[in-house]
Amino acid sequence: MSQSSSTSGFMVLHSNRMEQLVDLLAEFVVRYPLPPLVPETALIQSLGMADWLNLQLAQHPQLGISASLEGKMPATFLWHLYRLVLGEEKVPLHSPFEKERLQWRFYQLLPQCTDPVFAPLQQFLEGEGELKARKRLQLAKQLADLFDAYQMYRADWLKDWAAKEDILRLAYNQEQSLPVPEEQAWQPALWRALLDSMAPQERDLSRALIHEEAMAKLQEGHWVGALPPRVLVFGVSALPQQVLEALAILSQHSQVVLFVHNPCQHYWADLVEDKHLLQQELTARKRHRPLEGTGDLFEPHTQRTHPLLAAWGKQGRDFIGLLYRHDHPESYQHLFENSQVDVFSPLQPSTVLAHIQQDILDLIPPSDTPRTLKTEDNSLRFAITHGIQRELEVLQDHLLHLFNQDETLAPRQVVVMVPQIEQYAPYIEAVFGGINREDPRYLPFTIGDRSLGATSSMAQGLEIVLALPHSRFTSAEVLDLLNVPALQRRFNLTPADVTLIERWVQGAGVRWGLDAQQRSALGVPGFDENTWLFGLRRMLAGYLVGGSTLWQGIAPYDEVAGLDARLAGELAHLLAQLQRYWQLLQQEHSAQTWEAVLASLLDAFFLPEDNQELTLSARLREQLGLWCQACEDAGLREPMPLVAARTPFDEVLSAEGPTQRFLVGSINFCTLMPMRSIPFEHVCLLGMNDGEYPRPQDPLSFDLMHMNAHGHRLYRPGDRSRRDDDP
Questions:
Q1: CB contact set of 573 (below 8 Å; sequence gap of 6+)
Q2: Which of left, alpha, beta for 431 (phi over 0: left; psi -120 to 50: alpha)?
Q3: In the list 139, 433, 523, 680, which could disulfide-bond 429, CB 3.0-4.6 Å?
Q4: Given CA atoms 238, 242, 248, 252 in this order, what sign does their dihedral have?
Q5: Model confidence pLDDT, tens digit, residues 138-172
Q6: Percentage of the chain exceeding pLDDT 70
Q7: pTM for the model
Q8: What is the torsion angle, in degrees rounded to the nearest 10, for the CA atoms of residue 517, residue 523, residue 527 and residue 530?
Q9: Is the dihedral of CA 490, 496, 499, 503 positive or negative?
Q10: Closest by Cα among 185, 180, 157 to 169
């Protein structure tokens, strides 16, 4: 690199190795440091990548520390940029068009959509009682997801629909458009109904309009706040066109540097479906040259490529292709030694895996003649097992063999990735956690990407309480609740107390049901025998009169005696609270009333103490308040059932936990995500089963982005697709 650089520009650095990208980043920030106390802004797409990048920079000899790197997700950064450009008065912290807020606006709006154009929606919503409420909630959530995606990927459609032009502009020529299919005519009408339901000052706050206005201001050179002097994009496998456009325009005033992990040093962006959509705009912008002798790669008969590269995740391929639209390497090549902005490292293939990597790097198809496999070559191995547990056992044996062979190998240098971590977590705990820590075969491990609901006992207790309206109140369910530490503290119990209560419950003959009334609510004959009320009466009668004779028709249970009788009182208190909230949760309330009911429910059953419980309680209350505010903003004041009111709690419980302990010195078990391209010494993949990976995800039946309309595919390069993300 030279010793001077321009203050702004859009730079894209490619490499086939993440370690080299880290070296480039470290060298760049050392040679061109920002002013003191000005943090670096880094766009990342996973917390795991942020952790790894910070560790690598801290260990880099040119830095030795990483203390001023602010990692941000692309969507969060983009909204923050809008606020910097247009001002906080113009752009609120939370947009009324956020997905979470749109859901409740649609929930409020759906019953009012009675025009004939909305017939498909009303047909879906037919039903009574809880079924209708579930359908309404499900449809509102799907509509919020869909229109949130439209704001990011089809802003031009929404702008046309708002202007009462029911058309769909095409990707390759946005001046050309198609009419919205008749069976989907309700979508433009619903968007206009949504806008009409908002206050005039809110209608201009959609992401599409805010983006357009902010980009116009940036291009004019006008903004309110202080723009970040430099934005580093690292470890991001894909960005929507809207974000790329914003970064390109921001680069007129700030430095924007993208560090792109690219497996091939030749041009390969045309190796995608619908490649004609990229041909017109990219033919003259090919930064990487096609392989000599292949001719025009856009012609099918001349294609020459590696099948694994062609099968790479579509979204990642689109991302590399779309970078050519904004990339002008001639404007910044002089900043680097020998004008080199592509740092591809050829390998010296000695293993099967290295040969595959080199072939992909050179865009060479596999040879028809199989290569000779060395006996000691274990770089690529496959195992077929009959179940998940056996999969983990084979993996454990393989890892023990690796650690025995290489004494320098550390557990943190091994990653194990699976499609669904919650499915594998119990088996991981059973196989790897079943060995004593003092045993030489013990391998330290951590499980990342787990939801808060799966890792917190308080969260699991909350799930039991929220299910009260449909609960049978079996002895097992209530005793599981009693084993939650936060609930034990609330009712002044200890684990030893709970063990004693379990013995009493069994001895008193408690089987299921709160009382006769609760049993009747389930549609079965109402009788008190073997209910919790029946068992509690036997316990209290035994304490009062002993167990010699019947007392007022009750057979006393005489095990309850002495100071332990206090536990029967705490059990009675718990059952009283369960009965109270069983009744409250069955009723419909307004959002404001639900906020009070659910907040009091947390206070009634749980007393958080450790950091995880305190964090969970704070997040639940915060999300509850945001949900109530969203309902108020949407004008949603009608009573709603629990199935809708529990949504803020469900969102917290299904979210990733606050501390995932990724890269902390243990074997890392985590979800297989495309953006987690972190280099490890050994990478193990589990669950690569047909039908399970690539992960199946059917698009919404009314998602126009994935439809064919009038003989034209409406897909655009860069569109989000979870299944196509999986290579």
A1: 491
A2: alpha
A3: 433
A4: negative
A5: 999 999 999 999 999 899 999 999 999 999 998 75
A6: 89
A7: 0.86
A8: -100
A9: negative
A10: 157
